[in-house]
Amino acid sequence: MNKSYSELVKYKEFEDRLKYLMMHGVVGASTFGFDRHINQRFYASYEWRRARDQVISRDNGCDLGVPGYEIHGSLLIHHINPMGVNDIVHGEEWIFDPEYLITTTNKTHNAIHFSDLSLINKPFVERKPGDTKLW
Predict the structure, then answer these.
(1) CA distance 56 to 116
(2) What is the CA radius of gyration of the chain?
(3) Which of 69, 88, 96, 128 has CB 3.0 to 4.6 Å from 63, enough for a Cys bridge?
(4) Tens-place pLDDT, residues 59-95
(5) Please, where are the H alpha helices in 1-135?
């Protein structure tokens, strides 16, 4: 394992966590290809649903587990280290271990896989009187 939740939480800022997780993937690169049915069965399993629920609870439903980045729509659980067909077929325990999982939104998930910070919404900045001045 290259990366872990224990290491991730050392980064307090959302963008720092995102940079830690970036995978530098390529758009259109095959992940499971013709073996897609294997990971679909995995994601429907009781073990996965239990691990998923634990991670969502641990992260308080926040994107990358960062307070203030609550997810109000659908969310994903991201494997911090890439999971492959052999990991599922051989029943590797780490694929269910919350130490190697994190809660994300779809946009954040794509930003992680394709290392594209432009996919992420900018944090809300509260407006104040007089902040419309250019200089």
Answers:
(1) 24
(2) 17
(3) 69
(4) 999 999 999 999 999 999 999 998 888 999 999 999 9
(5) 5-8, 14-21, 36-43, 46-58, 85-89, 106-114
